[in-house]
Amino acid sequence: MLILECPCCGVMADETELAPGGEAHLKRYGPGSSDEEFEGYLFHRVNPKGVHFERWRHANGCGKWFLAARCTNTLEVFATYSAQTPEPPQHVIDAIAARRPNWSIEA
Amino acid sequence: MSDVSALMGAVAEGRTRVEEAGLAGMITLRGDLASAKLIAAVTGLAGVEMPGQREIKTGDDKAVAWMSRDELLIMVPHEEAEAAVATLSTALAGEHATVANVSDARALFRVEGPHAREAIAKLAPADLHPDSFGPGEMRRTRMAQVPAAIWQSGDDQFSVICFRSVAQYVFDLLALSAKDGSEVGYF
Fold first, then answer.
1. What is the pTM of this model?
2. Residue A1: band (very low, low, confident or very high) from pLDDT cuts 50, 70, 90
3. Do residues A64 and A58 touch, judged by C-beta distance below 8 A?
4. A·B CB contacts under 8 A
5. Judged by CB atoms within 8 Å, which residues 128-187 of B form the interface with A?
6. Are residues B60 and B115 in the same domain?
7. What's the CATH number for A3-99?
8. Nearest of B77, B67, B78, B83 to residue B28 by alpha carbon
9. Residue at a domain's end among B40, B70, B104
């Protein structure tokens, strides 16, 4: 059971209240980009055993999107934060580093 | 506007009573909730304070609930809903906000009795313990398979709002959950 705190309404939301939105912090490649970039944007997703950044929507609650950093292996949640964030903010990276000393963001 | 409510006041009798509360005026207002103009329009219309995050402020016959950081639900008597929409639209002219009369798109239920809290807790993945959830909070969550909004509207009374299209489903759920003999006695 995954429980995430929605940063928009502050509710500790049960997984069944949420809708998953896949990998977070994707950079969109549209018209004018190379075929490789566009293919990567459309199809290439990381699938780590460990720290992962994800998009979630509080579908049965306030309806807002937010981002979560969690471990796919242990289901530990490091932080949830605003969806209007182009890359993981420092406090999230610090929270992960505190629990996973060998982890780096490029992993 | 419709002149009948979703289930025309259906009632499930028992120690914990479930009732479809009939016609209610509901207005969805979306906009910048920090805007002074918007706050003045809402508090002026409803006669209650501006609700903060997840709060519901209740007056004599009106209420304002915080639904998300850019959305309020304003509850007024059914016959006043259209006038209230007009008042708000006028007051918010020029503001980046939308006002929609959703009275006919929602159903309202009252669950009342000694096990009302428990009847709802059986259906929702929300923490409804009295220490965590009490009067003044609007909790949007899931009730079995559909979205619902719940608040405590009396000592032993809870109110539930859902979409009108699933009113029968929610009524059946609540009636079954509140059925005499099904009390767990947890709270």
1. 0.91
2. confident
3. yes
4. 38
5. 139-142, 147
6. no
7. 3.30.2270.10
8. B67
9. B104
